[in-house]
Amino acid sequence: MTFVETDQLSKSFGSFAALSSCSLTIEKGTIFGLLGPNGAGKSTLIRLLMGFLTPTEGRALINGFNCHQQSLAVRQVTSYLPGDARLDRQYRGRTILKLFTALRVDGCLAKALEIAEFLELDVRRKVGSMSTGMRQKLAVTIALANEAPFIIMDEPTANLDPTVRQQILGLLRLKREEGKTILFSSHILDEVEAISDTVGFLKQGKLITTAEIKTLRNNHRLTGSIEQTLPSIPTSLSDEIQLVKQTGNKIILEVKGNLLKSLEWLKQSNLSDITIEPARLRSLYEEIHPERSELKP
């Protein structure tokens, strides 16, 4: 069942197209990972989903509600953690949690305090005296302390240590088990791969492709050396073997599906120094964004 849908969703600011003809679906009870460098259109897409921006063209639906025309209904079924969450520094953490849980019909202070304890967050401290990481824990707690069926998490693990990151991923998995639908935006590829069912890649305002993580894990990346021209890939294997890159005598191939099916041709191709490893999200990302190889692992 589709819970989130965009159809040719576009947003321009003057002559600048921040998002162009974005069409995607997010199935109910799944986690959708949103990837792309700064300026790719991730924040614009999220703000259109929340009804904060008016689309130039196209439409977006959340649980059947039009994100622009029915934005209040959309926000009632959505819990949103912005990437730049700012909280009043004069209040103590517990007061902030009490305030935000009271704003939602489905908010729960007891649940908020339980999450805060799990994350080892001292809610007695004033926000102004909290570290950046503590304030991020507080913001995450607010976003998860309700029963909203749709959750948008924009960079939820920013400024957090690896242990806390894993704790937050665990909390999101629990939400998925409860049937919640989650949009997870992050620059940390390993996190996106570990948590997501499906990923979408944005580049220069365009959704380049989407991929199922379970399908990606069935593929392999083969690296080797060749002293002559690579033989033509047989037609029977053209769907399984793809030449990704060749620089001098170094060659990279992607083998989709069952690796054994392609081994006979690979043995006859005169490749040497062969290494084979499961395809990772990083491999696909670097194909789409070769200029962004510095992205965090």
Note down, in words, how this protein is organized.
The chain is an alpha/beta fold and about 300 residues long. The protein folds into two domains: about 210 residues, P-loop containing nucleotide triphosphate hydrolases (Rossmann fold, 3-Layer(aba) Sandwich); about 60 residues. It is about 30% helix and about 30% strand. Strand 7, helix 6 and strand 8 form a beta-alpha-beta unit. Helix 4 crosses helix 5. The protein is elongated, with a radius of gyration of 22 Å.
Known CATH architecture of the largest domain: 3-Layer(aba) Sandwich
Biggest beta sheet summary = 6 strands, mixed
CATH topology of the largest domain: Rossmann fold
Radius of gyration, CA atoms, in whole angstroms: 22 Å
Number of domains: 2
User: Per the principal axes of the C-alpha atoms, what is the gross shape?
Assistant: elongated
- Per CATH, the superfamily of the largest domain is P-loop containing nucleotide triphosphate hydrolases
Q: Tell how many strands the DSSP assignment holds.
A: 14
- Count of alpha and pi helical runs: 10
> What is the N-to-C succession of helices and strands?
EEEHEEHEHHHEHEHEEHEEEHEH
Q: Going across the major beta sheet, what is the strand order?
A: 6-7-8-3-9-10
Beta-strand percentage? 25-35%
Q: Which stretches of 5+ consecutive residues score pLDDT under 50?
A: 293-297
Portion of residues within helices? 25-40%
Terminal residue distance: 32 Å
Quote the average pLDDT.
90
